[in-house]
Amino acid sequence: MNQHHDRQAKQELADRGFSLVELLIAMAIFMVIFGAVAVTIYNFQGTQSNVSARARGTTSALLSMNVLTKDIRDALIPTGINQVSPIVLASPTQLEFYTTDGTGKVIEVNAQASPGTTGTCPCSLTETVVGTGVIRTSISNLVSQNVFSYLPVPSGGTIATTTSVPTTGVTDPSPLTIESVIVSLSVQPNTNGPIVNATNTVLMRNLANSTP
Asked: What are the DSSP E strand ranges found in 62-195?
């Protein structure tokens, strides 16, 4: 009799289903688990986004750095021009100089960092061929407009650590006796994202040479 009563009680309990309290507890547990999963997915997506942005920034900076480096390294003094240096104008934000276009043709290029529409960074750097406006390379989202610094020709066997260059640039840089140009690019692809830095010291190897 007791066994029959117990079976009947268990059956009634099973038929009754879940109480409201049990449902609320189950829902609360589900929400906690769901929230934890959502936060994990969000953090993973944020990390992936930062990694992708950093990769894009690195690629862009390196591509522009390669073009600038090659042009500066190949800087030369053309003949038939009253110019004592490959450099026409030098400042922290602008570098104008003579080089070759890769086919042996002499060109004058102007690499200039410009502020954004607000007058501040993020800035952009564009290297164009003077007289034609052809763009050789460009890069955006720079966190600093000061891209160029300079090293002078060694004096007495010792090279200084920097060359004093007016912030407004100079039209005749010959007193500066620049031998090397330091190019520094700091790029931030996304606001509040990672900053990618690329720096290269480039020796102008043709200082003693001229071209027809």
From this structure: 77-78, 87-90, 94-100, 106-114, 123-129, 135-142, 148-152, 178-187
